[in-house]
Design a protein that fits this description.
The complex is a heterodimer of chains A (418) and B (416). Chain A is an alpha+beta fold and 418 residues long. Chain A has 15 helices and 14 strands. Chain A is globular, with a radius of gyration of 24 Å. Chain B has 416 residues and is of the alpha+beta class. In chain B, strand 12 and strand 13 form a beta hairpin. The chains are: A alpha+beta (418), B alpha+beta (416).
Chain lengths: 418, 416
């Protein structure tokens, strides 16, 4: 999908706020092998700079300047990565020692004048982050959830289309070096003009904030164009089942559902199905398994519209697996009853309407909605979701369920299990 | 800010109304929790098994006059949950519609209760699953050893109880616990959001009158805890395949006022950050001498015992003896510095600015202060700005950092 973005910042005046939030989104081409550089870069740019070389110096200066938050987030849209530089500062005048110019200079320098030696990031700073990342892997697994999710993902997505496998990540991490990171940095930050900026602030601060922003971050280009693949609908054809033993006290059933010929129009149906199964007003899986039958203590679900995949994971006691599988299967049949469907849909609409009331208590709700709409053409705010949900027909849902298949299923038996 | 109201029946309410919001929340606390396995009603000793308070929480939620109230309320778009802590049990709702109706339901769920063995038996299974879930927590057994080196009472089993205790749970025991503790003067209700204060007080009074609850003469068992450590050294060698050690301190909070306790809570974070954190001299020296690779993980915990909270400091150094020697020497004679104190305080100030727009933060902060230290206030920006190094030194100087307990997990090469 071709997108045109303007580089002039979007400014949102928010009533009664005590802070300014600046989000600068840097767009660039993404390749799978960039994963480690991406992770390290986010950290190194926000923990040291050429002027404040030591992490402690950098951290202290940040505190002295009253910078409330400063980090880099990233989001991958298949072929494109968006690095979001986020910094938050107090409303001007709230703290008398606060110096706005110094804050902007500090952030600017950390992004554009990092700690570099000989066309490489400083080796020591680089290694601290790299070693910390390796250490994260040594303590693995941190929980039964992490362990069983990884095992299931490896089985369900053999080609690792939807995630980076731990081994691939570790190999890339071990090979990572400060020179490659610098090259990556030049591409995604230093020489990157494809920046989309959002600023939310108190009206009183607007002039001063914009003066500093233009002084330090004015862009040379007015707009930029990108071809972004927001979705990558996958199909996992096999209907494969597997059983293993794990060294935990709970048994786990994991299932992955995929959809034949998934299109953009199906995104709303997948979301609706997920809400029927997992959101609290319907919460059909929990209601049937726990509330009615006490077969499980808790469960988790996931759905990903960008890959067109849905997952169910339940933790259970030994011996209950066949009944649990049968109940889950029956839940899908319940949705195929038109009266039930209408009830679930009405529940969902009501829930979304209440969602709107709840979300609008957040003073940033309107801003966030507008920002998300600009960033992602598939984003629908809650009000729009209500209207779209009202228009979903029973036949549409039936046709969607007909294209759904249980692609992968794994039972992990506890150490005392079967 | 929060208005304190004590009803004629002894129930305490704290109210914070903000009519610009759509959402309203009510938190109901009964001041009895998992530690209350022995107690006295009219001076008569009563005993229940471990896990009784938690079982009762499930029973009240799942076997209410509405049936499974979790299901009923969640289906009606009401956030609702309950939890059992060491010394209180909490039930809370949060909703953007029909708050009064749902609030009355909450009062009924907790106060309008009937007991039967059938309903008890129906409650057992999810609790057994919860025990299995707890046992799958990494570091559970290690942390049990750490805690048991500090406290005389094993706090790790009291929460959920054993599978055997739960399977044999009798309704008479639950009822005895309920009757002993679930009465108005042993309860606190905190309400925040969009509501009318006078209306909510009247509704609360009317409903409690219907429940016809009589206040009891119940007292908790006196804790036999003192400021002494249970043991000074333990080796753990079970299921962990990583080097790990913990140094723990037991602090005596008995002689401080509620406000002082709350301040010390903050000052301890400064003490640990400035003396063991990544910017401290100790940390830098240990890194330079290649004795540690990663930062200390420090925890201050007052939930287990409010009079004697504990500090525990974790690290995975292979040179644990030397690291422990230097760490404990540093905390025995900590370094205080005006610059890093002010920097730490700046950080608290910006954190406060960041969160003071959120009503949920105000409620959680107030509730934590109230339940932890009986300190009935929110930590305002002005309160944080009043912190100073002289006061910090004075308050911390009374704490004992001479005695500590060590737990080590030593990995044999063949099991790594």
């Amino acid at each position: 999908m071709i997108r045109n973005f303007k580089t002039k910042p979007y400014i949102y005046e928010v009533k009664d706020v005590n802070k300014t939030i600046i989000k600068m989104n840097f767009f660039s081409e993404y390749k799978r092998e960039d994963c480690v550089n991406n992770a390290i870069l986010k950290n190194i740019l926000t923990t040291c700079s050429n002027k404040y070389k030591q992490r402690s110096e950098f951290k202290n200066k940040r505190k002295d300047l009253y910078i409330m938050d400063y980090y880099i987030d990233s989001r991958v849209y298949n072929n494109v990565i968006m690095h979001t530089v986020i910094f938050v500062i107090p409303k001007i005048g709230l703290i008398k020692e606060f110096n706005l110019d110094e804050v902007f200079k500090f952030i600017h320098d950390s992004l554009y004048d990092p700690f570099i030696n000989d066309n490489s990031f400083d080796e020591e700073s680089f290694n601290i982050i790299k070693e910390n990342r390796i250490k994260d892997q040594i303590d693995y697994p941190h929980s039964i959830h992490e362990y069983t999710s990884d095992i299931f993902l490896d089985f369900a997505d053999e080609k690792h289309q939807t995630y980076i496998h731990r081994d691939e990540w570790l190999n890339a991490l071990k090979k990572a070096n400060s020179k490659d990171l610098y090259d990556y940095y030049k591409k995604v930050i230093l020489n990157n003009k494809n920046i989309l900026t959002f600023i939310s602030l108190n009206k009183d601060d607007k002039d001063e904030i914009m003066e500093k922003f233009n002084k330090y971050f004015k862009n040379d280009i007015d707009e930029f164009k990108l071809d972004i693949n927001y979705s990558n609908y996958i199909e996992i054809p096999d209907n494969t089942k597997k059983e293993i033993n794990i060294n935990y006290n709970q048994c786990v059933l994991s299932q992955a559902y995929t959809f034949k010929d998934f299109t953009d129009d199906d995104r709303l149906l997948l979301k609706t199905l997920y809400y029927f199964l997992y959101s609290k007003e319907n919460d059909l899986i929990f209601k049937e398994l726990r509330n009615k039958r006490n077969l499980i203590y808790y469960h988790r679900m996931s759905s990903d519209n960008n890959y067109a995949i849905m997952g169910i994971k339940v933790f259970f006691n030994k011996g209950d697996q066949e009944e649990i599988k049968s109940v889950i299967s029956n839940v899908f049949d319940m949705i195929r009853d038109e009266n039930n469907f209408n009830t679930y849909k009405a529940n969902l609409i009501r829930a979304l309407e209440y969602d709107y009331l709840s979300l609008s208590d957040n003073i940033y709700y309107e801003v966030n909605t507008q920002v998300d709409s600009i960033l992602n053409p598939y984003y629908r705010d809650v009000k729009t979701q209500v209207e779209l949900t009202k228009n979903i027909t029973f036949d549409q849902m039936i046709s969607f369920l007909d294209r759904m298949s249980l692609s992968k299923e794994m039972i992990m038996y506890s150490k005392d299990g079967e | 800010m929060f208005k304190e109201v004590i009803l004629k029946n002894g129930l305490t309410m704290y109210l914070y109304s903000d009519k610009s919001k759509n959402r309203t929340s009510a938190h109901l606390f009964t001041l009895a929790g998992s530690k209350d396995t022995t107690f006295y009603v009219d001076d008569k000793q009563k005993k229940v098994v471990n896990g009784t308070a938690h079982f009762l929480e499930h029973y009240l939620v799942e076997r209410s006059i509405y049936g499974n109230s979790l299901q009923v309320l969640n289906e009606d778009y009401v956030d609702y949950n309950a939890l059992t802590a060491i010394d209180y049990t909490e039930f809370h709702i949060s909703t953007v519609h029909d708050f009064i109706d749902n609030y009355i339901k909450l009062l009924n769920i907790v106060n309008n209760v009937s007991f039967s063995q059938d309903k008890v038996n129906d409650t057992i299974k999810p609790i057994i699953s919860e025990i299995a879930r707890k046992e799958d927590t990494k570091y559970l057994e290690y942390n049990r050893v750490v805690n048991n080196a500090i406290y005389k009472r094993d706090l790790y089993d009291i929460g959920l109880g054993t599978v055997k205790d739960i399977q044999n749970m009798q309704y008479t025991m639950l009822k005895e616990f309920y009757d002993a503790f679930y009465y108005p003067s042993n309860q606190i209700i905190i309400i925040t959001g969009n509501f009318d204060e006078e209306e909510i007080i009247k509704i609360t009074e009317d409903n409690y009158n219907k429940f016809n609850k009589i206040n009891k003469n119940t007292r908790h068992e006196e804790s036999n805890e003192d400021d002494k450590l249970v043991s000074k050294y333990n080796e753990y060698n079970k299921d962990l395949k990583e080097h790990l050690f913990t140094v723990s301190y037991k602090l005596n909070f008995k002689d401080y006022t509620p406000e002082e306790k709350n301040k010390i809570d903050f000052y301890i974070s400064y003490l640990l950050q400035s003396n063991t954190g990544t910017e401290s001299k100790l940390y830098q020296d240990l890194i330079n001498d290649k004795l540690i690779t990663y930062a200390f993980d420090c925890n201050f915990e007052s939930a287990y015992n409010k009079d004697y909270p504990m500090i525990s400091i974790y690290n995975d150094s292979l040179n644990s003896d030397e690291v422990i020697k230097r760490l404990t020497a540093r905390l025995k004679e900590p370094i205080f510095n005006e610059d890093n104190f002010n920097r730490w305080k700046n950080n608290l100030i910006i954190e406060r600015i960041n969160s003071m727009e959120k009503i949920g933060f105000l409620r959680n902060n107030f509730t934590a202060n109230l339940l932890k230290y009986n300190y009935k206030a929110v930590d305002t920006l002005e309160f944080i700005k009043s912190f100073n190094l002289d006061e910090c030194k004075k308050l911390l100087s009374k704490l004992n950092f001479n005695d500590y307990s060590i737990v080590k997990n030593i990995v044999k090469e063949d099991t790594k």
